[in-house]
Amino acid sequence: MKRHNNIPLITLRKMLRTMFTIRRFEEKIIQLYPQQEMKTPVHLYLGQEAIAAGVCLNLEKKDYIFSNHRNHGHCIAKGMDLKIIMAELYGKQTGCSRGKGGSMHLVDIKNGIMGTSAIVGAAMPIAIGAALASQMKNDKRVSVVFFGDGAVDEGAFHESLNFAALKRLPAIFICENNFYATNSPLLARQPADNIFQRAKPYLIKGLRVDGNDIIKVYKSAKDAIESARRGNGPALIEYRTYRYKQHVGTRYDHEVGYRPKEELDTWIKNCPIKRFKNFLLKNNLISLDEIERIQACIDREIEEAVVFAKNSRFPGKDELLEDVY
Amino acid sequence: MSWEKVYTEKSDFEKACKAAGKKLRGLTYREAIREALLLTMKRDNSVFIMGEGVDDSSGIFGTTTGLNRIFGSDRVFDTPIAENTMTGIALGAAISGMKPIIVHMRMDFLLLAMDQIVNHISKWSYMFGGKLKAPLVIRSIIGRGWGSAGQHSQSLQALFLHIPGLKVVMPATPYDAKGLLIASIEDKAPVIFIEHRLLYEHIGYVPKNRYSVPIGKGAIRKVGRDVTVVGISHMAFESLKAAEILKKEGFDIEVIDIRSIKPLDDELIFKSVKKTGRLVIADTGWITGGVAAEISARVAGSVFKYLKAPVLRVCCPDCPTPASPVLEKNFYPGAREIASAVKKICKR
Ligand SMILES: Cc1ncc(C[n+]2csc(CCOP(=O)(O)OP(=O)(O)O)c2C)c(N)n1
Ligand SMILES: [Mg+2]
Fold it and tell me: Which residues of B are catalytic?
């Protein structure tokens, strides 16, 4: 079997495919958003795709993920059907949360997506609880939680690391450090740029990795996940990356007076998808033709999701009070 | 229920049983809670207990004593002092197939967990179209007296009453403490289970078997003609004391122990008010925006035309809990205040 750096070719292709899917899916959102039919705030993941893809490709279907407001990438990478995400964005009854969650609250139990929270930092305790259940039942599931650098400001981050370390839970803390929480830069909120070092006092592994290099993301996550599955406890990985779009919405920050365009341009040069595509091409691991075929296939899938979402019915008024308990 | 009288002394309970010619097992409220936990954990491996001090020798006022030895430290364990995260952990475990019981020794400390309770636990079904369920129990304890002051005394049930997606139960008798706790653990919804410290020593009939008391159903503790008195938690007991005082003065009140405040047994209250035409509500919490206010509004909205007098609320006045015994005495209402409220709306 063809491999690179000990990674099978099939996995390398999946990496590309997953990153493409996330990117194209959100580009579709950007295209359709002005129609104002998707009435839900969207926190776009563009620029950070290597993290969701690289981490989730190491997970089994039964493994849990927990995520935050910027959740589309994580859910797509974990295997969620694009149709039920899109339908949820359109507020339709066929959406994953039957139109009661919107963009920030996706769920897909069969793929281990146990609900995403838009309260900064708050998914961590829930993820740790799932890891505790897994440890109690000895069902060998790993629980992964994605969060931003902003969530590190929260008490829940520290409390969760503490408990996960105390009980050696199969939990992986994935911090996507994009250097901003809304418009507030990291160093306006934290005394130093050292998120990965917060693992040290809890005696667990803490790593800092280039989040725009999917091979590095994949390998670091693989080690941590395998170790947790073997019962060796949690890890904290800080992936450094950048979000292209504004905090919420489909425009660029420099168009609305926030982060400078030069900063964005530097990061776009460092685009995780472009980097990986070039790497595959250079090493003859894929051809341009194949890339085009993959992209066409993804675009078809996205188009189908849009048609499905648009054609689905809205929830009935009588559904308003359903599912309270 | 054949026998539902509750006593503060064991000897009184025994005397009463003897007088009635019954041989019944008496259990205190604390023992009843422990028995509910014991029986449920024996049957269901997915049930576990966590909280600050659940495995120490005093065992949450004796309600968890020794359970760690029976079930092991995996199923009964102490936690870091991190209320919000621990409560979120309970949620994570609940959606992953377990049935956690998390204990917050005092309701005041529960406030640190409001994010997980209000933003997460209560919504983890609805926000995902009912696809997930969070079958967990949050045991929390309220109390009064001994100069506990502002941060060790609060009865904050009204905060939870306000939140869709939670159930809130407040048993007042040992029988209900056991039956409602069993029902709460079995319920698919998250339940806030509120115990009152002054009730722990109360003793009453508690059958040995595993039984449950339905959540959302109140109980008439005393049938009466003149005024309906709805009592919540310890105030149900005070209402019965008030009934004794009032009987001597010729007033015959009906006492409802509401048992659950969410869902609330409106029908039971409405039916009683239709009969008596008068209503007093006695709660352990503050008066403004409280459970009594909610009950008043529902009664006004549905059975207004049966009311012969204004509805009165007997609750704590709008100030934080004071420490000094003199101030405390004026802060907490009891049987006497309930009795005066009844007399006031009867205007005889
Ligand atoms: C508890 C809480 N406080 C504030 C907010 C508002 N808010 C939403 S996202 C966000 C920034 C989060 O930044 P980060 O964790 O770095 O994630 P990113 O958006 O960069 O992916 C803030 C402050 C919130 N949702 N929850
Ligand atoms: Mg950020």
Answer: 83, 152
Domain map of chain A by residue range?
A: 3-319
Report the pLDDT value the prediction gives residue B90, as an integer from 0 to 100.
Answer: 98
CA atoms within 13 A on the CB side of B96: 33
Q: In the numeric block, which tokens belong to residue B147?
A: 């100069």
Span B90-136, pLDDT tens digits: 999 999 999 999 999 999 999 999 999 999 999 999 999 999 999 99
Nearest Cβ partner for B129 among A98, A122, A166: A98
- Range A3-319 classified under CATH 3.40.50.970: yes
Inform me whether the C-beta atom of residue A312 falls under 8 Å from chain B C-beta atoms: no
**Could you tell me if B276 and B254 are in contact, meaning their C-beta atoms sit under 8 angstroms apart?**
yes
Mean pLDDT of the A190-209 span: 98
pLDDT digits 0-9 by tens, A99-116 = 999 999 999 999 999 999
CB B154, CB B321: distance < 8 Å: yes
List CB contacts (< 8 A) between A114 and chain B.
Answer: 92, 95-96, 132
Q: Answer whether A64 touches B (CB < 8 Å).
A: yes
The pLDDT score that the predictor gives to residue B347 is: 80
User: Which of A107, A129, A143 is closest, CB to CB, to B132?
Assistant: A107
Give the residue on A whose Cα is nearest the Cα of B121. A126
Cβ-Cβ contacts under 8 Å, A98 against chain B: 129-131
pLDDT score for B1: 43
Domains, in order of start, for chain B: 6-205 (3.40.50.970), 219-346 (3.40.50.920)
Are residues B192 and B140 in contact, defined by beta-carbon separation less than 8 angstroms?
Answer: yes
Determine the distance in angstroms separating the CA of A99 from the nearest CA of chain B, rounded to an integer. Answer: 7
Closest-CA distance of chain B to residue A98, Å? 5
